[in-house]
Structure formats: C-alpha cells, structure tokens
Specification:
The chain is an all-alpha fold. The chain has helices at about 1-25, 30-60, 65-85, 100-115, 125-150, 155-175. Helix 1 packs across helix 2, helix 1 (about 1-25) packs antiparallel against helix 4 (about 100-115) and helix 1 (about 1-25) packs antiparallel against helix 6 (about 155-175). It is globular and about 50 Å long.
Length: about 180
C-alpha cells in the first residue's frame, strides 16, 4: 500500500502545480473546491482505465510487463521534470471558466492513465488505489489553489520536479522486483 500512497502523491503533483498557478490568478473563491473535485475525479478515473487496459493486455506482455511499466513511468516522470523546468500553461490563462477547468482536469490526468498500467503489477486493490489517488489529488489541488492564492507560483515548478522524480523511482523499483 505504501507504493500506492507514493504513486498518488507523485501523480497529484501535476494537478497541484496547475492549481498553484490557478490560485495565483486571484479570484479563487470556490476555486479550490472546484479544482479539487475535478482534478480528483479525473485522477481517480484515468488510472482505473489504465489498470483495466493493463489487465486486458497483461497476458500478452506479461514477460515484459515490468519493462513496460518502467518505460511508461519513466516517460511520464521525464515529461513532468521537463514541464517543471519550463513555463506552465497557467501563464496564458486569462479567465478561469468551467470548460477550461475541465480541459485542465483531463490534461493533468492523461499521464495517470498510463501510470494505471503499473497497478496491474502491484499487489493492491485497484478500486482502493484509485480512490486513494483521487482523494490525494483532491487534497493537493485544493491546497495548491490556497497556496497559489497566498504566495504566487514559486512552488509550482518544484512540485512537477518532485512528482517526475518519484515516478521514475517507482518505475525503477518495479523493474528491480
């Protein structure tokens, strides 16, 4: 279960970083709850879809499953590190609309779908794991809006770097099992 908690924290860093950027735009009244709910729901749903897809193909790729999980987590981690070193999309956002929030929720959770494949290799209950991922993302997203509202975006890139590094380390751990 420890791996699931670490995975949940790492996956939530994308949403956390975006939430910090959103909170820094001001007018954050109710935005923390909205960001938490949208990001949390999509972060819980996407790994479950990835898990189901992984279960479907596990028989065909079982001999290479560790390498596939490592590759996916390493790619996601590298992408997060890259994004942490470059400007975020939040600088271009002028108005925080419901449509824009939905698009951000989908965009920040696509990586979680690929990471859901790794759940097939962990001895965990997938339903519980996805619930933990969703609740963790809700908490980090809500907190991210509050942090961004109070202090701006100084923590945004650091969250992406941390999340990316942790995902790569989880991939290495799966590979070494």
């Amino acid at each position: 279960m420890f791996e699931v908690i670490v995975l949940a924290i790492a996956l939530s860093m994308d949403a956390f970083a975006v939430s910090i950027g959103l909170g820094s735009k001001g007018n954050a009244k109710g935005l923390g709850l909205k960001a938490g709910l949208l990001f949390g729901i999509f972060q819980a749903l996407m790994p479950f879809i990835g898990y189901l897809g992984g279960k479907g193909v596990l028989g065909w790729v079982e001999a290479y499953a560790g390498w596939i999980a490592f590759g996916l987590l390493a790619l996601i981690g590298a992408k997060m590190i890259y994004e942490g070193l470059h400007e975020g999309i939040e600088e271009n956002i002028e108005a925080i609309t419901n449509k824009m929030m939905l698009l951000l929720a989908i965009a920040t959770s696509i990586d979680a779908m690929a990471a859901g494949f790794s759940l097939t290799l962990l001895d965990v209950n997938a339903y519980l794991a996805c619930l933990i991922i969703g609740v963790t993302t809700f908490a980090f997203s809500w907190a991210g809006v509050r942090i961004g509202e109070k202090s701006g975006t100084w923590l945004e890139n650091k969250a992406e770097l941390f999340g990316g590094t942790v995902l790569i380390l989880i991939g290495i751990k799966i590979l070494l099992q």
